[in-house]
Inverse folding.
């Protein structure tokens, strides 16, 4: 689904690197537009000239040392999710050694493994995490939070409870492919597209709960719609110091929380 998400989000050439022992299985299941390539070691990917990496979904932890090397040493921009985050949780200090920009997309459970600490609001957790590590963070959940050091927080106001199903966010790492060029607000814009694609009012495919494959069907059209080519950032009175901000698609009203 990460591969499909990248294709739907408008990536040009999408390559899927997998261990040699599962190459045939993945090649048979992958979208025909993607190129599946077998590798002996994930360290070999340091020689590749890809623009952006999406790392984590379906990865497992059997090659954790190789994955950590890739996260630390790859100079390209990298989105880290799922098992990539679980591997990082065992050596979180690696985030201070990265040679390229990193975007982390944890759900609440993954965030607790990455940053186990005292009980506090998600906003405070996201802010402290980005103050400690030089990364961009998308903390998934109801009102997904976009955080980056020395920048106001952004909140995704789209989506619905029906999206709280396993694997729904698997294609979100790929949909954030343009994050490096536009910064955290644009990353949130792509996350808005993800959430809006899952809303029942968006598509005839949905009733009450969206299905992952159906979200993919409308992902590209959602991104291209004018309402998501720009978004409004509104600050509440509490946030005038730049601590937080709302990110909502243009034309949508600000939520009450």
């Amino acid at each position: 689904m990460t591969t499909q998400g990248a294709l739907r989000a408008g990536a040009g050439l999408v390559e899927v690197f997998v261990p040699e022992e599962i190459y045939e299985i993945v090649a048979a299941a992958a979208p025909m537009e993607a190129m599946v390539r077998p590798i002996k070691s994930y360290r070999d990917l340091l020689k590749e000239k890809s623009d952006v990496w999406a790392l984590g979904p379906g990865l497992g932890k059997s090659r954790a040392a190789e994955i950590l090397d890739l996260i630390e040493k790859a100079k390209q921009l990298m989105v880290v999710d799922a098992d990539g985050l679980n591997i990082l949780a065992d050596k979180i200090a690696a985030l201070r050694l990265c040679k390229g920009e990193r975007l982390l997309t944890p759900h609440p459970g993954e965030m607790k493994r990455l940053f186990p600490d005292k009980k506090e609001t998600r906003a405070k957790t996201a802010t402290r995490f980005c103050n400690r590590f030089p990364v961009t963070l998308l903390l998934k959940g109801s009102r997904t939070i976009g955080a980056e050091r020395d920048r106001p927080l952004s909140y995704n106001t789209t989506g619905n409870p029906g999206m709280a199903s396993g694997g729904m966010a698997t294609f979100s790492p790929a949909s954030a492919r343009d994050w490096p060029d536009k910064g955290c607000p644009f990353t949130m814009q792509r996350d808005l597209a993800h959430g809006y694609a899952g809303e029942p009012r968006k598509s005839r495919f949905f009733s009450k709960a969206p299905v992952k494959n159906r979200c993919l069907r409308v992902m590209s059209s959602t991104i291209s719609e004018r309402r998501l080519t720009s978004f409004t950032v509104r600050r509440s009175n509490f946030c005038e110091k730049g601590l937080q901000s709302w990110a909502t698609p243009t034309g949508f009203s600000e939520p009450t929380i």
Confidence is low (pLDDT under 50) at residues 177-186, 201-207, 226-257. The domain at 50-249 is CATH 3.40.1190.20 (UDP-N-acetylmuramoyl-L-alanine:D-glutamate ligase). The beta strands are 15-19, 35-39, 52-55, 77-80, 102-104, 136-139, 145-148, 154-155, 231-234, 246-249.
